[in-house]
Design brief:
With 227 residues, the protein is an alpha/beta fold. It contains eight helices and nine strands. 37% of the residues are buried.
Length: 227
Amino acid sequence: MNEQDESKNGAEERADEIKDFGGLTAKNSLGNIHCLSIIGQIEGHYALGDGQKATKYEHILPLLVSIEQDEEVDGLLILLNTMGGDVEAGLAIAEVIASMKKPTVSVVLGGGHSIGVPLAVASKKSFIVPSATMTIHPVRLNGLVVGVPQSFVYFQEMQKRIINFICDHSRAEKDKIYELMMRPDMIATDVGSIIEGREAVEYGLIDEIGGLDRALEALREMIAGKK
């Protein structure tokens, strides 16, 4: 097999990897970095319609385990552009990312809304581009809700889990997150806040303003330090 055939086969393998898992492993002399995209809506226990872009947590969880175990992967770059989705599925992914020993860096591109906020802060270093936004709002539930006090308590406890995770993995303060979550004057027919990139850094949610170049630079520094 000549170099041209090998290059063609390599390109086809990378294309299949992106199609099947929404990511690929980029290799060079500075380190092998797996790029994982979390896009669209986080799909939970119920499948979304065929016309919707979705990140399936049953695909992401074992993929994260394989990245952590793969001796050829030095670090993980997470590209986020998500509207949010299933709370428990999103938190499950975020918890796995937060517990990884390998260097992890996230970049919010476009948006990191709702449960996308814990996903953005779960990595060891987080970035956001200036044009991106993040939406912070109370927990919502679709479908039948039993009108009893226990339902309200359940919502409160779920909200606490989300706020605690965000604050445990960022510089954000609980009182500020709760204030942004309950703001009544920004989102039509709802409560919550939409914050832009620089505000996310100001509030301590995200570490730095930056795009792909800064994220890769930070990840390579973390890889070099670990080696």
